[in-house]
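Now read this:
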Amino acid sequence: MTAPVLASTRAELAVLLADARRAGKPVGFVPTMGALHDGHASLMRVARERVALPDGDRGPVVVSIFVNPMQFSSGEDLDRYPRTLDADVEICAAEGVDIVFAPSVEEMYPHGVPAADREPDGVTVVPAPALADVLEGAVRPGHFRGVLTVVAKLFGLVQPDVAVFGQKDYQQLALIRRMAGDLCMGVEVIGAETQRDADGLALSSRNRYLSADERATALSLSAALRAAIAAGPDGVQPALDAAHAVLAEESGVDLDYLVITRPDLGRLTDDFQGEGRILVAARVGTTRLIDNLPIQIGASTGAAGGDTTKGDN
């Protein structure tokens, strides 16, 4: 197991990628905020597959580890968010990552960092489209402006051919795909399947905040999604009713939203039939969790219920 090379500055990263660029090798990229787990490791494996070359060689895989302050509003868990760089590098090494880019806040934001809930003053940011104002964006105003800004910066520094994101953050994935396409960034954005523990809980860096009792309560989120999927053939409202019935049995779930949308997160009507997406967000104790799954509404014309790994730009 070879340890990846650690870069903390833009200049160091450029030097480490220079040989691959000269050789015309593809670059794979997995942006993260650290506190890595098996879900992140699965993204690294997808990236490695996508930079494989016919001769058995492959291009480099870069993982960034940066807790982005711009996507946290005042009072959110920025200071509490786990920083576990040494353990993160070990996971990257086990997955054959070549470069870990772990910059400081000053390196990424040399002119200062606006919080998610403040208008930027003298700092260039990426404005988010209307899709950023619903669901997560409605609960966390300005959050996606921070996400898109840091991802745009990272894309500019790494210049990847492919970038892999998890489908658990489904709205984030949709917005990054939109940005990459609208701004002609030349990167293929891939959505990789959500990884789960054996009990069904979606893997998340925030799961470590849950007590044993809270974790048991949190299982109701994935259970609610599965109940909705089972009721999906009966229509949108029966599917939502089935999910709400599961959540109603758990007193420790403070629901932010539970919705069924089109796969592109567009609204659908009560008589909609076809494949959609069901998304849930809730607080369990002091920990906010999100989850989602594809759902077939009405008569099925094919298999539904599995996440996909292929994305577009």
Residues 212-231 form the longest helix (20 residues).
